[in-house]
Amino acid sequence: MSADEAALKTCHERINLSVAASHQAENGSVTTVSSKESEEATYAFLPPIESTDAHLHEFAEAMRTVGKALRQVAEGKAAAQAEAAEWKRKYEAEKAAKAHTHVIKGCSNCVKDKLEHLASKLTLETASADETGCCGNHGICSRQILQDQCPGPNRKSDDRIVGRKVPFRLSWGSNGDKNGQHKHDFVSFEKGDITTAERSNKQIFLKWDSPPQTVLFVTKPNSNSVHAFCSEMVRWLKEHNNINIFVEPRVSKELLIEDSYFNFIQTWDNDQEMKTLHTKVDLIVTLGGDGTVLWAASLFKGPVPPVVAFSLGSLGFMTPFPSEQYRECLGNVLKRPFTITLRSRLQCHVIRDAAKDEVETGEPILVLNEVTIDRGMSSYLTYLECYCDSSFVTCVQGDGLIISTTSGSTAYSLAAGGSMVHPQVPGILFTPICPHSLSFRPLILPEYVTLRVQVPFNSRGQAWASFDGKGRIQLGPGDALICSVSPWPLPTACLVDSTTDFLRSIHEGLHWNLRKSQALDCPA
Prior knowledge:
The chain is of the alpha+beta class. The protein has three domains: about 5-95; about 210-340, Probable inorganic polyphosphate/atp-NAD kinase, domain 1 (Rossmann fold, 3-Layer(aba) Sandwich); about 345-490, Tumour Suppressor Smad4 (Sandwich). It has helices at about 5-20, 30-45, 55-105, 110-130, 225-240, 250-260, 270-275, 290-300, 325-335, 410-415, 500-510; strands at about 140, 170-175, 185-190, 195, 200-210, 215-220, 245, 285-290, 305-310, 320, 340-345, 345-350, 365, 370-375, 380-390, 390-405, 430-435, 445, 450-455, 465, 470-475, 480-485, 490-495. Strands 12, 13, 14, 15, 16, 17, 18, 19, 20, 21 and 22 form an eleven-stranded antiparallel beta sheet that branches. It has a five-stranded antiparallel beta sheet with strand order 1-2-5-11-23. A five-stranded parallel beta sheet has the order 7-6-8-9-10, with helices on both faces. One of its GO terms (biological process) is NAD+ metabolic process.
């Protein structure tokens, strides 16, 4: 027998002894210490390789692999043992808890009375919490749309408010059916087939749980006819319906100068009180045109009460109620269920390049119609990079860009070549302003996306952003504007229903597709 064969035989015998020793541990457990020792022993058993024989090199590598495998197996068994010990500890803890519960049941009557007192206290707290939750019936409770309390830790009570705002419920009906039925499933699956629920003919109805108590008036400024109409409507609501009236500070001064009879009206003194209006007002009445509705929406940075808009302006896309019939219209709104249109709003944030991805202001800027980014006074074309979520959309080179809601589709976006869209269609309009391109057509994007418009560093000029036609902000190279759909829509009351009011507005306001009828040339 050669020296190499003798060394090989000796290694086989020693490794077999090491493996057998590792399996002699009790219950099949192998600790990490024994695994390391087995690996070290494996390395120790290997004779020093002084020969250049290739077979001995391969054999040595194989032995090292076996040693590593042994250590991994041992560590796995150790982890399994630790997990089993943890489960055993949890079982013993549960068993001890049950035994402790059994001891508590055998306590004296005094301890039992204390426990019953604590249980009743918890029950009362749970009941009070449930009172602020959803009703659980068909439709949506008002607390899902309008908050009953002012957000924030510092809440101040207002002695001028008679009571809490009146809750209401929203329900879905089909073709004027006010049965309150609502189909929650938008997509259903039956036997592997995908079908969509019919939502196109659903109207949203609002029903008060009790008669409204507080109404806010928002009026068009610098109009004598509107002022006279406002004072007449305030008198009627107070005398015939005993409604609490809120008005803007400007209107409050005008009414008090006119007549001391209006001492009962209420207003707010600062921005902090204005932020709590949604907790006090049940209904908003606007007297003016679409601009008055935009101004009323801007007063609410969060939830907005339902809006009844009377037409005292020019076009009136969002003001369907005639002022001549205000008593009948308000009577129906205050006492009966009525159809509403949920008009989505955009929330916008400005991010400065120097702010390192921090927003410029804490509160978002809310718009009802559109946010416009244009070149301002610059003679250069606007150069903007646009992103939708994480996807690149395009570069805008032209006079600017309009990001619009569907309610704003009949405003600036329409003038720039955008499509008219029903206000309850969920989407965001992406409309360029005079693009220097023959193929740049407007887009309609889904409502769940987030748009980012950024001024690149190689832009020749700056850009300006305006929100519903006011509040212009300058955007320099590296600055960005983030836009997404706000969770707080503007609920506007409908004269008939959402679709009828929309078609009436484009027929009467824009004379849409109005032309002479074709002459009848065929024989009688």
